[in-house]
């Protein structure tokens, strides 16, 4: 009735029906509705906000990113390589070219970062092609640095660097007047102003956290009394810096807890385990080809969880045709209930409320749509039960085997593969051995092959190989006007 959700569906049903636990049944049906999962966008993200571990000292744990799309300067540079210390929040803005490969970026990093602060312990970055290259991975593995990548199209993982990028763009717009191509010459002044300002998360400036004092600015050149801390001896200075770092860490923890409480309002904790089935939200930034139109499905699946990386990141068994990373944030995943057939219509007429008594006599019907692993599992299970029944009866006696043939003629397997044959109906009459062998082949192929075209060709090839003649089908669209029975 329009797939409006639980409340509106319940309102319509209450006008005509009543049964105990009505709301629970409607809620269960809506939760298992495949059409709703595919067509509707997610209203609330799953999973709680999980911050990155808080570092203990400056320039040991860093993050990096790029600001792209800037006007090309006289030196040909059109991008900024942004490197941020996750403890002190100090940032370095390094001009570069968008076309620079991983070796050039590594050279810039050693010249501008390692020269001043040493080799970091961890590097947080997105999945830029430069950071995923073999050269970049081998370089840092030899140096002992651990690379931490965010999930694709999920910038919230490294929100700190994204905020710095936004602040850098704002500062450049403030400093630059009409000559937009002069941004490169303004970068040193912008960087100094950023690192000299007090950060909201630490309550100290990045300069003070790293060096123990703030460098002189034009205001400091005015003759005023110098602070005591600038004239401390070495021992007292080291103690002061140690106390300063402890205060910074406490301030970061306090601000992180405040943000977690605010971000987790209205969210619920969802945990998936390996082997669970989930629906995948087709985020436009990550699946542009599947979101070209507003009327295209917003979700796909179900897909099986292969690995639980942490509470917020999971690796899925994703077909290669998607050509994206198989690691997804929990915000893009929804639980899939495999306890019932979500493709069937629970309100269809002409059925007994107590359930069908001749369930095994019903033909195996697959609705048109994408071939998913869960549907393949259902097909395989149904066909294997048929094959097992035949094998048991054949092992008893020849008469039982003959009776089994008549039973199979009565309910035929007929195997209706509308999704494989584009609306055609294939009836497999299992009165002979070849049709039974074909049923086994189809069942095996359904599990091992997930691609639509490959399954279709494998079915046709299997029948041709077994019966020494091509597979005949009649395409009739939605209505079945005629069918060719195989085996006669």
From TrEMBL:
GO MF annotation terms: nucleic acid binding
Domain of life: Eukaryota
UniProt GO BP: DNA integration
Domain annotation Integrase catalytic: ranges: 54-214
Pfam families linked to this entry: Integrase_H2C2, rve, SH3_Tf2-1
PANTHER family: RNA-DIRECTED DNA POLYMERASE, ZINC KNUCKLE (CCHC-TYPE) FAMILY PROTEIN
Name of the protein: Integrase catalytic domain-containing protein
Organism: Centaurea solstitialis
